[in-house]
Amino acid sequence: MSNKMNMTTKILIWMVAGLVLGSLINAFASDVVFIQTYFVNGLFHVTGEMFISLLKMLVVPLVTFSLISGVCGIGDINKLGRVGAKSFGLFMLTTALAITLAISVASIVAPGEGFDMTQTVPSEFSAKEAPPFTQVIIDLIPSNPVAAYAEGNMLQIIFFTILFAVCILMIGEKGQPLIDGAERLNLVMMKVVDLVMMIAPYGVFALMAKTFSLQGLGLILPMISYFGVVALVLLLHATGTLMFLLKTLGRVSPVTFMKKMRAVQVFAFSTSSSNATIPVTLTTAEKRLGVENSTASFVVPFGATINMDGTAIMQGVATVFIANVYGIDLGLTEYLMVIGMAVLASIGTAGVPGVGLIMLAMVFHQVGLPIEGIALIMGVDRLLDMMRTAVNVTGDSAITTIVARSENTINMNTYNDPDAGVIEKVRLPHSPLKAP
Ligand code: ASP
Q1: Which of 122, 267, 276, 410 is paired with 198 by a 20 to 30 Å CA distance?
Q2: Residue 288: which CATH number?
Q3: Does the pLDDT at position 436 exceed 50?
Q4: Quick one: average pLDDT of 136-143?
Q5: Which residues contact 112 (CB under 8 A, 6 or more apart)?
Q6: Residue 368: inside a domain, yes or no?
Q7: Is residue 299 part of a domain?
Q8: Residues lining ligand 1, judged by CB closer than 6 Å?
Q9: How many degrees, rounded to 5, is the angle at CA 22 between CA 15 and CA 193?
Q10: Which H helix or E strand runs over 165?
Q11: CA angle 282, 137, 77 (to 5 degrees)
Q12: Could you tell me the distance, in angstroms and rounded to a whole number, from the CA of residue 166 to the centre of ligand 1?
């Protein structure tokens, strides 16, 4: 058991080490060419990027095989529709609660009032065109599934895979070998996840060291009011709203949940991507929380793609902040519009680093706030992206748990067992080639 415990702790230790080393480099060695060339842009950059690629490499095959086994495991199309509707409703609800809390707290604290614009040197922000909502709906359907797979378009992959799996069920007995095959392939992918986990501490270290050597913590100071309010609401939402929902709707212990979320949050924090974190979220939901594959395989990737509580919080606070900075008065109607837009935007926000900021342009546009204002908050967005992604994945997992509980597809013994499914050391089997 000590071996198992060591792994999560090890990841945490390496994460903090990377954070400290990166901050030190930023403070004392930002112009030492040797360190910048060979460490920041060399070792850290290469290791970090390779690690992210490894995680991303797992996502598409893992989601596909897991989803086929999951859908076939549910076996009942009505039930599938129910799980889909429930999770969609809950995802939208939590996002709406998140941004409402953000706007309320920000209105009270009023960050940005009396803000001296000369304190930060805003770089120009040119907003990328956000897709219109109608297009987001149309784009659910992949006109070419192979292209969807090649691009890693999660919503399209989910759509096609579910349709495909439902049809496997519909062909009856003949489909059984395909179901068996998908289950085996899913097992293999889970094993690949285990292997990648073995190098996770070093990958996390490299990512943290690189980010923090480029992003000095000093950057936060002029923006402390904005940064502080976003951080506060993220914390309130993760430890308040989500835990309340887990307790009331899920009837499970929020404390146990939070303890088991650590690894998922560390991965989300260091990769800033809900999508890249899917392998960890999925294995945690199944092995640590005891959620059956039939529920987790569907709700986890769905949530990583459309559920963005943390991002919505940033957008709510940013709206109030920029309105204050520019001295624009927003009324209740505008705020309601912001809430609606942010909830819709979260569906279109892919779980990759930094897109939240692009979708913010869409929200600003809608309520007539100056898009250039986004330039003001860009400097601290990298750090906030890390924090909000950790909240995004916590939300995904909380809803997965609640849906599983209501569907009776969660093993409460596993959920309540503190040691269930902790990342273990993987034992490599002897080469099968040498086997007699
Ligand atoms: N990085 C976030 C995520 O992947 C999205 C965002 O807010 O930019 O969940």
Answers
A1: 410
A2: 1.10.3860.10
A3: no
A4: 89
A5: 225, 226, 320, 321, 322, 323, 324, 325
A6: yes
A7: yes
A8: 272-274, 308, 311, 349, 351-356, 385, 388-389, 392
A9: 30
A10: helix 154-170
A11: 55
A12: 30
Strand partners, 291: 410
Cβ partners under 8 Å of residue 42, min gap 6? none
Name the average pLDDT for the chain: 89
Identify the pLDDT of residue 435. Answer: 42
Phi, psi of 73 (to 5 degrees): -70, -40
What is the number of helices (H) and of strands (E) in the chain?
A: 21, 0
Q: What is the whole-number distance in angstroms between the Cα of residue 354 and the centre of ligand 1?
A: 6
DSSP class of residue 239 equals: I
Residue pair 423/264 in contact (Cβ under 8 Å)? The answer is no
Cα 389 to averaged position of ligand 1 atoms, centre (Å): 5
pTM, 2 dp: 0.90
Length of the chain: 436
Q: Domain span at residue 64?
A: 3-416
- 344, part of any domain: yes
Which pair of structure tokens corresponds to residue 376?
A: 């003001």
Evaluate if residue 22 carries a pLDDT over 70: yes
Q: Indicate the residue type of 248.
A: T
Q: What are phi and psi of 410, to 5 degrees?
A: -130, 135
Handedness of CA 240, 244, 250, 254 (dihedral sign): positive
Instruction: Please give the single-letter amino acid code of residue 56.
Output: K
In this structure, is residue 195 part of a structural domain?
yes
Do residues 160 and 142 make contact, with C-beta atoms less than 8 angstroms apart?
A: yes
